[in-house]
């Protein structure tokens, strides 16, 4: 809720800058090694915004990758399913299907 109260007050330029900063944090191996809980919190923020407000303008493939790196496999599955169902994102549907199967296996679910 605190993030939302700030987000709605930002103009487009500041929102874009914040999104770019979040994306850089998501890609950071150093942050993953030093503060994996921080990445998990950022992932939860993205999920909250998608569910309760408005999805942040972050590529769902990047969110799926982050969720996988955080071992948040249910979230990774959600984002991979979105990717698979979005034709312009799933350029390689075979690879996306394989990733869906791999995530389901990590969750202990059958193919």
Top keywords for this entry?
single chain, 111 residues, mainly alpha, 7 helices, globular
What is the structure about, briefly put?
The protein has 111 residues and is mainly α. Helix content is 74%, strand content 0%.
Characterize the structure shown.
With 111 residues, this protein is an all-alpha fold. It has seven helices and no strands. Helix 5 (60-69) packs antiparallel against helix 6 and helix 6 packs antiparallel against helix 7. The longest helix has 17 residues, at 36-52.
Topology:
Blueprint lengths: L1 H6 L4 H16 L1 H6 L1 H17 L7 H10 L3 H13 L7 H14 L5
Strand content: under 5%
Number of helices: 7
- Rg (CA only): 15 Å
Q: Encode the helix/strand succession as letters.
A: HHHHHHH
What is the averaged pLDDT score?
88
Question: Got a strand count?
Answer: 0
Major sheet summary line: none
């Amino acid at each position: 809720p605190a993030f939302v109260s700030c987000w709605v007050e930002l103009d487009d330029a500041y929102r874009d800058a914040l999104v770019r900063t979040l994306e850089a944090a998501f890609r950071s191996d150093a942050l993953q090694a030093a503060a994996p809980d921080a990445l998990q919190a950022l992932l939860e923020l993205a999920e909250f915004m998608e569910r309760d407000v408005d999805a942040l303008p972050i590529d769902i493939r990047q969110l799926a990758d982050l969720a996988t790196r955080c071992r948040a496999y249910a979230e990774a599955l959600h984002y991979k399913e979105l990717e698979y169902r979005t034709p312009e994102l799933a350029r390689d549907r075979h690879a996306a299907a394989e990733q869906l199967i791999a995530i389901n296996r990590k969750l202990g679910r059958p193919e």
